[in-house]
Design goal:
Blueprint (H helix, E strand, L loop, with lengths): L3 H17 L3 E15 L2 E8 L8 E4 L3 E8 L7 E4 L25 E7 L5 E7 L9 E7 L13 E10 L4 H11 L8 E4 L16 E4 L4 E8 L5 E6 L4 E6 L2 E8 L2 E3 L4 E7 L6 E9 L12 E7 L19 H9 L19 E12 L14 E6 L3 E2 L7 H7 L22 H4 L3 H4 L3 E2 L2 E4 L3 E9 L8 E5 L4 E8 L4 H4 L10 E2 L1 E4 L3 E9 L3 E7 L2 H6 L2 E6 L20
Family: Belongs to the multicopper oxidase family.
EC number: 1.10.3.2
GO biological process, one term: lignin catabolic process
Length: 567
């Protein structure tokens, strides 16, 4: 029989070692106005701690993150920790009026949560209106001490934040669109780490520069923080090896180009294996909507090898056409999860709840005695299954769910479209009022704890054919399959990858196509799924899942924080 004293010592040693490997990481965010110069203009923006982009947060898997947010801006504010699971910390997720009421100007709130079961690149951003255009930053999760990456250790890690810039107050841009019912004004530039690059006016010296040593390997942590811009990213004469997306490891995938939608992250290895010189990195838009204006400009930075001549002209990469869906789809559909790698999650085999959900644009009638700038005098709208989501106004959905308050929401979000139609046929859809006008509602789906959901996301051709980046809060999902046209279960289920599909929190549903995802609802709370094109979320392209408590205290949503903002 084992010595019980020695056994107890062993257990205590394990507990101490486990505790010692985790840390409490604490930050303070002062959110306030900042004047910066871009594109020949001095522009007032809202920023965190006087920097744009905002502070980069570094943690290790298992750490607890505490962020004290002081709202010194003139706007309501919340902060979302994009992609963080928030296991039993739904109160800290951050979407406005979903899990909390906003932090009012002059007020503060502390976010506290543990980061577990994930490694890689995530990010944080404001989740009220369009503030995230300038209120955002990277959230880097490294393995626990003593644990390694599932790829050779890079010489250095480099954060690449792709963004979007307006020569205007972005809150005014959004307000004008909402008031008029028309499209928002397009951005004036894209940016790399806050800098537009030398193709824009007055920007010769406003360009990001990455210095590299020949033969060394660099881990690029790429984040697309743009509000509405899906982007191709490329470095002249260099391949990139993708090793993770959305903080989930992938099989190494070599490509000379990356397509990244708003909300997504990509970790890729760059080897400085070319001749000593300078090479542009560039990002340009991917857009598929015919007749809808978009920012057709290119941002670029430069990769400079040690020893490169200072006056050398960098080599420019050849970028795809703005509507190159084939290239976008090839990249997005070629990724596979790193089966049995760190934090790998098997595909759940049994499905408890199936959903067929259409996503797309539509119209809302113009109010009486108003002039609206949407098509045919209407206002633009967006919907899922012909339900255009509207958040509550007097109480957050999470508070209403937790406290069993009636009258805030209904639990009858449909699991399929109210009408079946030829979803990707623009000729038919653009003239049928049954498809064009969706009611404004606060409908949700209630899920049993630990149930498995399979959701088929079907793009529609109403108004235009677009790639919609759909982001799920509170959980990752497996991407089982994706394709073009109308989803046909008898044919397309044969495409399902149930062995090593990519794992994401944001999926770009192909333009004029579909994607099938599967996830387990094992995190009690209220979780929104929405399009990460901010103009579309403003128009109502979202829905909400309410996950019930599990059978034990360890699977029960805790009490709300005492300093949670009131509405």
């Amino acid at each position: 029989m084992r010595n019980p004293v020695l056994l107890l010592v062993g257990v205590l040693t394990l507990v101490v070692a486990t505790t010692a490997s985790a840390a409490v990481v604490e930050h303070t965010f002062n959110v306030q106005n900042l004047t910066v110069t871009r594109l020949c203009n001095r522009q007032l923006i809202v920023a965190v701690n006087g920097s744009f982009p905002g502070p980069r947060i570094r943690v290790r898997e298992g750490d607890t993150l505490i962020v004290h947010v002081h709202n010194k801006s003139p706007y309501n504010l919340t902060v979302h920790w994009h992609g963080v699971f928030q296991k039993l910390s739904c109160w800290a997720d951050g979407p406005n009026m979903i899990t909390q009421c906003p932090i009012l100007p002059g007020n503060k709130y502390t976010y506290k949560f543990k980061i577990s079961g994930q490694e890689g690149t995530l990010w944080w951003h404001a989740h009220v209106s369009w503030l995230r255009a300038t209120v955002h930053g990277a959230l880097i999760i490294r393995p626990k001490s003593g644990h390694k990456y599932p790829f050779p250790k890079p010489h250095r890690e480099v954060t690449i934040i792709l963004g979007e810039w307006w020569n205007a107050n972005v809150m005014d841009v959004e307000d004008e669109a909402v008031t008029s019912g028309g499209l928002p004004n397009i951005s004036d530039a894209f940016t790399i780490n806050g800098w537009p690059g030398d193709l824009y006016p007055c920007s010769q010296n406003h360009m990001y520069k990455l210095k590299v040593e020949p033969g060394k390997t660099y881990l690029l942590r790429i984040v697309n923080t743009a509000l509405n811009g899906q982007l191709f990213y490329k470095i002249a004469n260099h391949n990139l090896t993708v090793v993770a997306v959305d903080a989930a490891y992938t099989k190494p995938y070599v490509s000379n180009i990356i397509m990244i939608a708003p909300g997504q992250t990509v970790d890729a290895l760059l080897v400085a294996d070319q001749d000593i010189g300078s090479y542009y990195m560039a990002a340009s838009p991917y857009s598929t909507s015919v007749g809808i204006p978009y920012d057709n400009t290119t941002t670029r930075g430069v990769v400079v090898y040690d020893g490169a001549p200072p006056i050398a002209t960098p080599l420019m990469p050849t970028l795809p056409a703005f509507n190159d869906t084939a290239t976008a789809y090839k990249f997005s559909s070629s990724l596979n999860g790193l089966k049995d790698g760190p934090h790998w999650a098997q595909v759940p085999k049994n499905v408890d709840y199936k959903m067929f959900v259409t996503v797309g644009l539509g119209f809302t009638p113009c109010e009486a005695n108003r002039t609206c700038l949407g098509p045919k005098g209407t206002k633009l709208s967006a919907s899922m299954n012909n339900q255009s989501f509207v958040p509550p106004k007097r109480m957050s959905l999470l508070q209403a769910f937790y406290s069993n308050v009636d009258g805030i929401y209904t639990t009858d979000f449909p699991a399929k479209p109210p009408i079946e139609f030829d979803y990707t046929n623009a000729t038919i859809n653009n003239y049928n009022p049954a498809f064009l006008f969706a009611p404004k509602v606060t409908k949700v789906t209630k899920l049993k704890f630990n149930s498995t959901v399979e959701m088929m996301l079907q793009n529609t051709a109403i108004i235009g054919v677009e790639n919609h980046p759909m982001h799920l809060h509170g959980s990752n999902f497996h991407v089982l399959a994706q394709g073009f046209g109308n989803y046909n279960p008898s044919k397309h289920r044969e495409m399902f990858n149930l062995v090593d599909p990519q794992i994401r929190n944001t999926i770009g549903v192909p333009a004029g196509g579909w994607a099938v995802i599967r996830f387990t609802a094992d995190n009690p709370g209220v979780w929104i799924m929405h399009c990460h094109l901010d103009s579309h979320l403003t128009y109502g392209l979202g829905t909400v899942f309410m996950v019930e408590n599990g059978p034990t205290p360890e699977t029960t949503l805790p009490l709300p924080p005492v300093d949670l903002p009131n509405c």
